Amino acid sequence: MSSTQTSDLIPVPSGQLNIADVSNESPEAVDCPVWFSLVVPTYNEGKNVEHLVAVLSHLLNEAVGDDYELIIVDDDSPDGTWKEALALTNAYPRLRVMRREHERGLSTAVIRGWQVARGEVLGVIDGDLQHPPETLVQLLKAMRDGADLAVASRHIEGGGVSDWSLIRRFLSRGAQLLGLVICPAVVGRVTDPMSGYFMVRRSAIANISLDPLGYKILLEVLGRGRIDHVAEVGYVFQKRQEGESKVTWRQYIDYIGHLVKLRSRGRISRFREQFPFARFFRFGVVGFSGVFVDIAVFYLLRFHLGLNIFRSTALSAEVAVINNFLWNDLWTFGDISRKQPGQRQRLLRFLKFNFICLMGIVLQGLIVSLGHDVFGINEVISKLLAIAIVTLWNFWVNLKLSWRVTQVK
Ligand code: GDD
Ligand code: MN
């Protein structure tokens, strides 16, 4: 390998899998923008690469003139795919080649390619000619017509698989069905969520930290991108002519792991957005104040007024409940209380609050004995656990019941 060849390789981006806005790109990209960047991930596709580049270049020259670039991202293939590709760059000036030596995997290869891309529309196609290049024309049209994402699909009109065994069809559909169960919001958005042949608008995935697992980069784009308008184009998955597939059982496991990850991410962020943290904090402060009220009043009743232990406990607890209610009504839920004015409304809130607190005490007793007697957890830990659970319960039920905003017509 000569040194000029090596210097012609695109440097591999490192760090986060984050795609920049065009404006933040390298000076080179700003000086030399194109409309469309097509990434081809390859691993041991040496026998396919020349034909592939020829076909894609011919097709794209016709479709978009010279407003495109082809980016081959090769994971240091033992068969030297990257070298073959590099040798083609003289004949095909729109071709760029990246050789990754320290990172592996189809999905991250695609993202690394998009990171150095200059286009406004980013695409991906397999490097083994199983994705018919002609479909690019329809995908490009869909993007021109304003789609955020255009997916080549085997499962709509005009789509299909050429010679798949019954078992492979069954596995593929089974995986799709399983995906629908795990993460319907992602998998249900397109007819062919496993497709590795699609285009996406840069703006839809720019400045988002992508973190894919395994083979299915489309899941990541659907799960994390800002995708409104989706278009689909049918295609027939071709028979592999040269080389072999890299799919193993590992990809099925990664696929499930990827979906679980996307699903929990959505959950956590939704929880963060929706849970009223500030209100819960105020509720906690008020509850804490109640503990001191409770103990002080208990002390007073028991040792200064000489009431018996049961009465002292019950009365002091009730005084604490009243204390908590007043502060919660004024402060924690003050904004809601003000929308329900009048003494009658306030009394109603108080009665509900009281009732919920009472149930909380019963619940606490149940949790403590469950934790201690059934699961054998230490008594004090059981008690702390019960307090934590009941505090949450109290907060949530009071929010939904006592201070519920009643819709007035
Ligand atoms: N850079 C890189 N790194 N490329 C890889 C890697 C990798 O680790 N693994 C696979 N590739 C490349 C292959 O060289 C090929 O160009 C493309 O990714 C697809 O890999 P195949 O192994 O040929 O996959 P397939 O044909 O079995 O699976 C395809 O199934 C879908 C339909 O179910 C997927 O690749 C999808 O793209 C396709 O739509
Ligand atoms: Mn293939």
TrEMBL record:
<feature type="domain" description="Glycosyltransferase 2-like">
    <location>
        <begin position="37"/>
        <end position="203"/>
    </location>
</feature>
<feature type="transmembrane region" description="Helical">
    <location>
        <begin position="347"/>
        <end position="368"/>
    </location>
</feature>
<feature type="transmembrane region" description="Helical">
    <location>
        <begin position="280"/>
        <end position="301"/>
    </location>
</feature>
<dbReference type="InterPro" id="IPR001173">
    <property type="entry name" value="Glyco_trans_2-like"/>
</dbReference>
<feature type="transmembrane region" description="Helical">
    <location>
        <begin position="380"/>
        <end position="399"/>
    </location>
</feature>
<dbReference type="Pfam" id="PF00535">
    <property type="entry name" value="Glycos_transf_2"/>
</dbReference>
<feature type="domain" description="GtrA/DPMS transmembrane">
    <location>
        <begin position="282"/>
        <end position="402"/>
    </location>
</feature>
<dbReference type="GO" id="GO:0000271">
    <property type="term" value="P:polysaccharide biosynthetic process"/>
</dbReference>
<keyword id="KW-0808">Transferase</keyword>
<keyword id="KW-0328">Glycosyltransferase</keyword>
<keyword id="KW-0812">Transmembrane</keyword>
<keyword id="KW-0479">Metal-binding</keyword>
<dbReference type="GO" id="GO:0046872">
    <property type="term" value="F:metal ion binding"/>
</dbReference>
<dbReference type="InterPro" id="IPR039528">
    <property type="entry name" value="DPM1-like"/>
</dbReference>
<dbReference type="GO" id="GO:0006506">
    <property type="term" value="P:GPI anchor biosynthetic process"/>
</dbReference>
<dbReference type="GO" id="GO:0006488">
    <property type="term" value="P:dolichol-linked oligosaccharide biosynthetic process"/>
</dbReference>
<protein>
    <recommendedName>
        <fullName>Dolichol-phosphate mannosyltransferase</fullName>
        <ecNumber>2.4.1.83</ecNumber>
    </recommendedName>
</protein>
<comment type="similarity">
    <text>Belongs to the glycosyltransferase 2 family.</text>
</comment>
<dbReference type="GO" id="GO:0012505">
    <property type="term" value="C:endomembrane system"/>
</dbReference>
<dbReference type="Pfam" id="PF04138">
    <property type="entry name" value="GtrA_DPMS_TM"/>
</dbReference>
<keyword id="KW-0460">Magnesium</keyword>
<keyword id="KW-0472">Membrane</keyword>
<keyword id="KW-1133">Transmembrane helix</keyword>
<dbReference type="GO" id="GO:0004582">
    <property type="term" value="F:dolichyl-phosphate beta-D-mannosyltransferase activity"/>
</dbReference>
<comment type="pathway">
    <text>Protein modification; protein glycosylation.</text>
</comment>
<comment type="function">
    <text>Transfers mannose from GDP-mannose to dolichol monophosphate to form dolichol phosphate mannose (Dol-P-Man) which is the mannosyl donor in pathways leading to N-glycosylation, glycosyl phosphatidylinositol membrane anchoring, and O-mannosylation of proteins.</text>
</comment>
<dbReference type="GO" id="GO:0035269">
    <property type="term" value="P:protein O-linked glycosylation via mannose"/>
</dbReference>
<dbReference type="GO" id="GO:0016020">
    <property type="term" value="C:membrane"/>
</dbReference>
<dbReference type="InterPro" id="IPR029044">
    <property type="entry name" value="Nucleotide-diphossugar_trans"/>
</dbReference>
<dbReference type="InterPro" id="IPR007267">
    <property type="entry name" value="GtrA_DPMS_TM"/>
</dbReference>
<keyword id="KW-0464">Manganese</keyword>
